[in-house]
Amino acid sequence: MTRPRAVLSMNPPRMARSLFDEDALARLHRAADIDTDLVLTELDSARSRDALAGVDILVAGWNAPVVRVAHLPYTARLRAVIYAGGVAATCLEDPAAFAARGVVAANARVANSRPVAEYALAMILLAGKRVLPAGRAYRRTRTPPDNFAVPEGFGNYRQTVGIVGASAVGRTVLDLLRPYDLDVLLYDPTLAPEEAAGLGARPVELDELMRSSQVISLHQPLTPTTRGQIDAGRLALMRDGATLVNTARGAVVDQEALTAELRTGRIDAVLDVTDPEPPAADSELWTLDNVLLTPHTAGSMGGELHRIGDAVAGEVERFAAGLPFAHPEDLAFSARTRVR
Predict the structure, then answer these.
(1) pLDDT tens per residue across span 41-74
(2) Which end of the chain is more exposed for a tag (fewer CB within 10 A), N or C?
(3) What are the backbone dihedrals phi and psi of residue 103, each rounded to the nearest 5 degrees, phi first?
(4) How confident is the model at residue 335 (pLDDT cuts 50, 70, 90)?
(5) 140-149 pLDDT per residue, tens
(6) How many CB atoms lie within 10 A of CB 30?
(7) How far apart are CA 339 and CA 90, in angstroms?
(8) Mean pLDDT score of the chain
(9) pLDDT tens figures, 291-330
(10) Which residue among 30, 277, 284, 336 is the active-site one?
(11) What DSSP assignment string belongs to 187-205?
(12) Residue 340's pLDDT is what?
């Protein structure tokens, strides 16, 4: 059987070496005719057009150049897009046009969901212990607290945690929360109540979740419907001393409203994503004591990137063997729902 031809497309090119260890590179070479030293960072030079014209599989990654409508004449042979990230459609100007031509796609969203979920779990548990205010008080007083005088609302026993969005990350977080003695609420309008219960959570409306949860962790995708979904009204519903954890997208939260609420000191926030990212140099998010700001570190980094590389290599192997993808993406659906 003739091996399919494949090409890598991502930016910077060194990303390929971060994603694929020696074992994953060997798997790619066994499954496909691929030059893993060639990584396309643009698609308009004669060299890049020639490389693109001869491939069956586009293996793309973060910051991959977008395959535009103008490139369609050079992609007649293309049959699959495998994306080392969340949504393969991000590297296609017109995903529906490729879907209409029979191009199939897969992404590594599930592989990347694990470290994000682990980060969220850690922050949820730390927030339950009220680590941010406890740390502030300790620095101020330099005196250990009387743990038997700590008021209700501290700790992770029978605490209420709200999860917004049963995305791949959200579902992994729900699974990781199962061993803990927590009351877990879930808002996701796409799920039936019995589906939410099957995920180990109690389905509620978003306003109830905001009102009832001591810790709220955001995992909804950014769509026209969810942009600014956590607005001033919903932030005002949060309990005094509650914590908002955002590892989704900064724009699902109204940033001005969040900053205004945080300025009062009434709530805490753990923000791995913001809008813009990073925050403006003069943003109060840099200086507010009740904010833990991290630089988009929840996603795969370091050795965790190899999990994505392994997932991508597996999809290339499946395609080469004539098998369905383990984690397919509907390009036509992505075209309809992505945020522009």
Answers:
(1) 999 999 999 999 989 999 999 999 999 989 988 8
(2) C
(3) -70, 130
(4) low
(5) 889 887 777 6
(6) 12
(7) 10
(8) 94
(9) 999 999 999 999 999 999 999 999 999 999 999 999 999 9
(10) 277
(11) E-TTS-HHHHHHTT-EE--
(12) 45
- Burial of 151: CB neighbours in 10 Å, binned 0-12, 13-18, 19+: exposed
The structure tokens listed for 235 are: 């932030």
**Contact call for residues 71 and 52 (beta carbons, < 8 A):** yes
Check residue 141 and report its DSSP letter: H
Asked if 245 and 217 count as a contact pair (C-beta separation under 8 A), the reply is yes
Establish whether 219 is a catalytic residue. no
Residue 133's pLDDT is what? 85
Are the C-beta atoms of 84 and 61 separated by less than 8 Å?
yes
Residue 326 CB-half CA count within 13 A: 15
Q: Give me 57's structure tokens.
A: 């599989």
Kindly tell me the sign of the dihedral angle through the C-alpha atoms of 230, 232, 238, 241.
positive
Of 136, 211, 296, 306, the active-site residue reads 296
Element at 300 (helix H, strand E):
none
Question: Which sign, positive or negative, has the C-alpha torsion 168, 257, 123, 242?
Answer: negative
Work out the percent of the chain whose per-residue pLDDT is above 70.
Answer: 96
Q: Among this protein's residues, is 249 annotated catalytic?
A: yes
The whole-angstrom distance between residue 168's C-alpha and the CA centroid of its chain comes to: 8
Residue pair 304/115 in contact by the 8 Å Cβ criterion: yes
Q: Does the reported pTM lie above 0.85?
A: yes
Annotated active-site residue 239? The verdict is no
Strands 104-107 and 328-329: antiparallel
Q: Which residues pair with 271 in a beta bridge?
A: 246, 293
Instruction: Given the residues 109, 249, 318, 327, select the one marked as catalytic.
Output: 249
